[in-house]
């Protein structure tokens, strides 16, 4: 008599049947979502029989017991960028009579992992990762393992931005937006350009900067990094202009940093845009009220949050999918043609 394995997992059954873990769970455990086709059901049941898979009844009963809570993980809810995303996500969740629990990681990867573990323990119905992805491989591996354990028990996950985790995502066109910012400054005749950037381990920073550099081609740009805040933008701009007073334009990788760049220009007596053009990214509500009104790259933030929440709550009948969120140049008064070189 052949030896019967005692540790066959649901993931092994899914792999043998060539289906997702969620599909295998729906066939064998009756977890949420639309019923699989008869062909998929037959494949999963055949694989389970061949592998001698035995379901853990008490564990599955617990897994199906979810709450009406959706976890929304952001970097900082006080940041207007994340506040706008949260507003859109909450509106979509309210339509489904669900409550959103918001957690701020303050850009600490370990804290993000801890929140995912807690939401899994509390059997939250879904998790939405709304902060920019961290680019460190070790973190992504750990996060992937936590999310796999969560989805294996019927949880759903979606993300804003390409986290490389194989989950559904709404992906802002950060690269395209960065390129549009570079093309705008080049069209205005700027060749001495600086960038104030947020933490380099954030994917949004990497993608926006890469698009900007692509637009500039061989033209160099000076880069200073700081916190993704107004004060970070101010400090980075002061440092840039102290070392490179010849700069005539600055691209700030978010609007808060751009507002800080404007403050730094005022401190130094550099008129914006006559002597220093400044362009931001995101188009926060405060951008149009800046003095002068801020040229920026617009993301529809509330719609982005609503779309991501709709993805995470949708019936999963297909593999994870991505939705692109366009980034659009909004020219305002903070950018102008490059000043003529001073005569010798």
TrEMBL record:
InterPro entries: HTH_LacI, LacI/GalR-like_sensor, Lambda_DNA-bd_dom_sf, Peripla_BP_I. Keywords: DNA-binding, Transcription, Transcription regulation. CDD domains: HTH_LacI (cd01392), PBP1_LacI_sugar_binding-like (cd06267). Residues 8-64 form the HTH lacI-type domain. The lineage of its organism: Bacteria, Bacillati, Actinomycetota, Actinomycetes, Micromonosporales. One of its GO terms (molecular function) is DNA-binding transcription factor activity. It comes from the Bacteria. The keyword Cell wall biogenesis/degradation does not apply. This is LacI family transcriptional regulator.
């Amino acid at each position: 008599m052949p030896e019967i394995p005692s540790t066959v997992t649901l993931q092994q059954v899914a792999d043998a049947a060539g289906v997702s873990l969620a599909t295998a769970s729906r066939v064998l455990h009756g977890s949420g979502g639309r019923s699989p086709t008869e062909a998929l059901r037959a494949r999963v049941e055949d694989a389970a029989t061949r592998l001698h898979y035995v379901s853990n009844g008490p564990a599955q009963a617990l897994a199906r017991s979810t709450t009406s809570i959706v976890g929304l993980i952001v970097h900082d809810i006080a940041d207007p960028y994340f506040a706008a995303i949260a507003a859109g996500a909450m509106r979509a969740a309210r339509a489904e009579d669900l409550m959103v629990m918001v957690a701020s990681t303050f850009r600490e990867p370990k804290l993000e992992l801890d929140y995912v573990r807690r939401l899994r323990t509390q059997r939250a119905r879904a998790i939405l990762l709304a902060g920019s992805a961290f680019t460190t491989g070790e973190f992504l591996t750990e996060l992937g393992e936590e999310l796999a354990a969560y989805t294996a028990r019927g949880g759903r996950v979606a993300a804003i931005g390409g986290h490389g985790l194989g989950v559904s995502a709404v992906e802002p066109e950060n690269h395209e937006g960065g390129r549009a910012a570079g093309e705008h400054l080049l069209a205005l005749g700027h060749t001495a350009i600086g960038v104030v950037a947020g933490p380099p381990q954030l994917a949004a920073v990497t993608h926006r900067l890469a698009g900007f550099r692509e637009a500039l081609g061989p033209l160099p740009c000076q880069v200073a990094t700081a916190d993704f805040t107004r004060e970070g933008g101010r400090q980075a701009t002061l440092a840039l202009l102290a070392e490179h007073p010849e700069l005539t334009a600055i691209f700030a990788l978010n609007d808060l940093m751009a507002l800080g760049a404007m403050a730094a220009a005022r401190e130094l007596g550099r008129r914006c845009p006559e002597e220093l053009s400044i362009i931001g990214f995101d188009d926060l509500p405060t951008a149009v009220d800046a003095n002068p009104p801020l040229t920026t790259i617009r993301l529809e933030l509330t719609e982005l949050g609503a779309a991501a929440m709709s993805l995470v709550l949708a019936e999963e009948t297909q593999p994870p999918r991505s939705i692109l969120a366009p980034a659009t140049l909004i020219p305002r008064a903070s950018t102008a043609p490059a000043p003529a070189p001073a005569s010798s």
